[in-house]
Amino acid sequence: MQESNPRNVVVLVMDTARAKTVFGDEGPDFSTLSQLSESGEYCRTAFADAPWTLPSHASLFTGTPPSVHGAHAGHKGLADNFTTMAEIFSRNGFRTGAFTNNAWVTDDFGLLRGFDDTYRIWQFMQSDVDLGPAALEISKLDLLKSISSKFVQGNPLKNIINALYGQFFYRNSDYGAKRTNKLIRQWIASSEEPFFLFANYLEPHLEYRPPKRYASEYLTCDYEEAMDIPQDPWDFLCGETNINEEYLEHLNELYRAEIAYLDHRLGELIDWFKDNGYFDDTLFIIVGDHGENIGEHGLMDHQYCLYDSVLRVPLIVRGGGFGGGQEIEELIQLSDILPTLMDIFCIDDDARSKMKGQSFAPHSDTQRRSFTLSEYLAPQPSLETLKKRYDSIPGRVKGFDRKLRSIRTLEHRLILGTDGMVELYDASSDTDEQADIAAQNPDLVEKLKQEMSQRLPPLDTMSDSSEGLDIEDGVQRHLEDLGYL
């Protein structure tokens, strides 16, 4: 029997999971996600506040848009004056734990403030000296340089163990979901306090390398052939590799297999919750932090644009009054999740006054959204970074050096850029956003522009400062390994 007043809350982020793949015509296509939606509720019109990890998680954790919290590619860190989701739950009597597989989602960037316990899954032994990611270097010379520069910091034995783990064991069979689940189980079982748990699972993220037995269910080519397909998004963008339509289809198959594998691991975790008596008094939120381009709009990865492919994310909520297998037929954005949780758990906190997110709790009297807003305030990687790597940058790619903002209603999406870009799409009939209809609908464009200007500062006034937190070498290399250069 599902509790209407849950004791615990679990927020699980499926990094890079897009609604287009996770949801079919009727709801989730994967068994665990389907079962959770049948006992909870699901939304196919949920959107990220930003198309990549750092600003998206900052919005999730603070209930504010990127132009308010200021964490983006030009300022890589969440300022101390923003209260996080974990801080709010911690000071309201919850034990807080974070389990992250993504190097952007760490205390290096200010995102894990308020967590009593944090786990970087790529480390075998938790340490502030982050040699595990550095050990992912292919070059043994680079590996030795990374280790030698950091070895004497902190505990040398722990450092070398983490380096060896990163080089020879991490990612051998997955991106960390199995170990994440193990650490979560141990953490929950170690205390009887109410808990707030956050986990970031990285499986759907590039590179797509699902276990062979999952890939075989979806691939229309040999597994070994699929593994040989180039997957560097910036090589693709700058014309260094030729990824044809057939290759893109196989990458889509691998991406789907990644989600199927993660769905399996989530199923194991949910079964453990049920077997150990935690399931019925826990509120679960399963959500993507952003989507992915796999050839859409001539792009790979999740940068340089604000289309549905990178913004529309799966959202499933179970507990706290969400139940019955219903579809939430309203617009939601990730910054709405924190005020929703505060309503469900009856938390009154001064931080609420800064939040722009709107609660969608079942019994909330907050007016429901008529649109969502998303922002891209600096390119990541920057054009300067790409120029250091490539001898020649295509003209189209040079045009990505801009800020973008988008408004999405149930019927339309408008995208504006500081380079003069104005694009309007019919979201109901042109779901792939191929036909720009801005020129034919000037009145609608102006109306949507006004809606944006009433809620967000002018886009051309937003800072593109490169100031931010210093990134430790190990974290930097982990980000590089994930394709963030």
Outline of the structure:
The chain has 485 residues and is of the alpha/beta class.
Total strand segments: 15
The separation of the N and C termini measures 48 Å
> What is the average of the pLDDT values?
89
Provide the low-confidence segments as ranges: 132-140, 465-469
CATH level-3 fold name of the domain at 8-122 and 170-369 and 462-484? Alkaline Phosphatase, subunit A
Shape category: globular
Q: Examine the secondary-structure arrangement and name the CATH architecture of the domain at 8-122 and 170-369 and 462-484.
A: 3-Layer(aba) Sandwich
Q: Structural class, from secondary structure content?
A: alpha/beta
Helix percentage: 25-40%
Q: Please give the CATH class of the domain at 8-122 and 170-369 and 462-484.
A: Alpha Beta
Count up the helices: 18
Determine the strand fraction and express it as a percent band: 15-25%
Largest sheet: 9 strands, mixed
The CATH homologous superfamily of the domain at 8-122 and 170-369 and 462-484 is called: Alkaline Phosphatase, subunit A
Estimated radius of gyration: 21 Å
Give an overview in words.
It is a single chain. The protein is of the alpha/beta class and 485 residues long. The N and C termini lie far apart (48 Å). Helix content is 34%, strand content 15%. Strands 1, 2, 3, 4, 5, 6, 9, 10 and 11 form a 9-stranded mixed beta sheet that branches. Strands 12-13-14-15 form a 4-stranded antiparallel beta sheet, covered by helices on one side. The chain has a domain at 8-122 and 170-369 and 462-484: Alkaline Phosphatase, subunit A.
